Amino acid sequence: MNIGLFTDTYFPQVSGVATSIKTLRHELEKQGHQVYIFTTTDPHIEKDVYERNIFRFPSVPFVSFTDRRIAFRGLLHAYQLAKELNLDIVHTQTEFSMGLIGKFVARAMKIPCIHTYHTMYEDYLHYVANGKILKPVHVKQMTLAFCSHLDGVVAPSERVIDKLSGYGVKAPIRVIPTGIDLEQYEPHEDELNVREKYHIPADAPMMLSLSRVAYEKNIKEVVDGFKTILKQLPTAYLMIVGDGPAKEDLEQQARDLGIDEQVIFTGEINNNEVSAFYHATNLFVSASDSESQGLTYIESLASDRKIVVKSSPYTDELLQDPQLGATFKTHDEMIEKMIYYLKHDKITDHTVLNQTLKQVSSETFGELIVDFYHDAQENYEEVHENSADAGNQ
């Protein structure tokens, strides 16, 4: 197939969406499909740089999310490109500019349009006028408007499908977790020595937080709990990897608590070095409840590291076996489980881990997406044949 992926976010931007799209592209191309990325311009990409099968459209920073982009023109150009490429299916990855362009292209070319709903927007309303303008009802209206006339929606987790069903989305929805390339998280001899770089003793217990450093990730709760953890494990460290709007406040919080010597902020890191940070730690932690799936949870497990994360339907199902880690609901429970797993950090039985990882491998991800494409194509043809027959009667 000739597949068009329409997205406002793609590398070099750092996000779970960009990673998901890159993984999907790789797996689809491995299967022999032609994949074309329709995305926004990026100030970190020079205009004359050649990017294979990537088409960038003029864009500006998105309001309140200045590290994200919104295309402001390119509708007809995208359609002309899609016709020349003879696209068989459009797969949108955003509800905004490039997503709307993708829907237009699919309708104009009379081909199916599939969409992946990546973001739980109700968790992000505070970014726009401190939540005083946009309300959950507006998210529902926006979602219903975008998801109308789609041929299928990919939900990365049960949490997403529950939310979309609650909104009243009528398009066929299928739960397909974003997969990861398991080989990418195997240790390599030449990988970065993270502990040496940040002057952390090799035998010191260390927890890792790796995400966009934003308020909805609730890293504040982890930092707050870390002060209590240090009373039992005084040589422990907390490493916070990533950048974002909450970073300065978190740094100040660590100083106010008097634990800034053992809370390490790395800022944004190179994507190729991510696995080295997992391997350097003893335990991955997160108090976020805004994840549609939580790719970093899977990445940590693929790196042979246990996780302690906020309870949700997705994480509770993921961590049914305590060999892999645990979820928590209260602050005290978080501290208790983080201390326990820092002391019991080794995965001794890999049977459950391997079964879990197989379900979320990038290969499985690619196969399930292609199955959905085929079903969407069959349904599309059937619906339009029936419509044509009805029109002739």
Automatic annotation (TrEMBL):
Pfam families: Glyco_transf_4, Glycos_transf_1
Domain Glycosyltransferase subfamily 4-like N-terminal as annotated: residue spans: 14-184
InterPro entries: Glyco_trans_1, Glyco_trans_4-like_N, Glycosyltransferase_grp1
Highest taxon in the source lineage: Bacteria
GO molecular function: hexosyltransferase activity
Domain Glycosyl transferase family residue range list: 194-346
Protein name per its UniProtKB record: Glycosyltransferase
Organism this protein belongs to: Secundilactobacillus pentosiphilus
